[in-house]
Amino acid sequence: MTRPAFRRAAPRSPRAPLPTIIRAASAAWLAAGALVALAGISFIVSARTQHRDGAALTGLGLVVLAVSAVIAFYALRLRTGKRSGRETLTTVGMIVGIPLLFRGPALVAVGALLLMCVLLLWLPQSNRFFQERDPKARRRFFRRR
User: For residues 106 and 109, what is the distance between their CA atoms, to the nearest angstrom?
Assistant: First the structure.
């Protein structure tokens, strides 16, 4: 007696390749996340070596490392076309990037990079990509009966 052959699941329909702008935005956000993580590590190291405001710098370093983890997580979600990734990264980029523009020459570069990453997420090519992958539901305020 022969066993029935196991049925394989149908392969997923192949999706169109990622647009160049989304690959660039994802890579830029991952680079920005690494740069923010490096800043967090430098805060912790300087807190250990300078014995001045050690607890405050260590706490700031941990917060910055948490922000870099959020950036990395949502940068990876960009590639799946989730609108929440774009919205969260835009919020983080604006909240962190704008104040960094006024904090000295080294942090101006980080702030400018974050704001440039935000800009990549809202270009017309990006808007089309997110509209195709994760369309926004339209709400009607006045429903007809």
Answer: 6
76 burial via Cβ count (<10 Å: 0-12, 13-18, 19+): middle
**144 has a pLDDT exceeding 70:** no
Encoded tokens for 105: 């020459």
Six-digit token string for 60: 């700031």
CA proximity to 34, closest of 72, 61, 60, 62: 72
Q: Quick one: what percent of the chain has pLDDT higher than 90? A: 54
Q: What is the DSSP letter of 16?
A: P
47, 58 Cβ separation under 8 angstroms:
yes
Closest C-alpha to 93, from 110, 79, 81, 76: 110
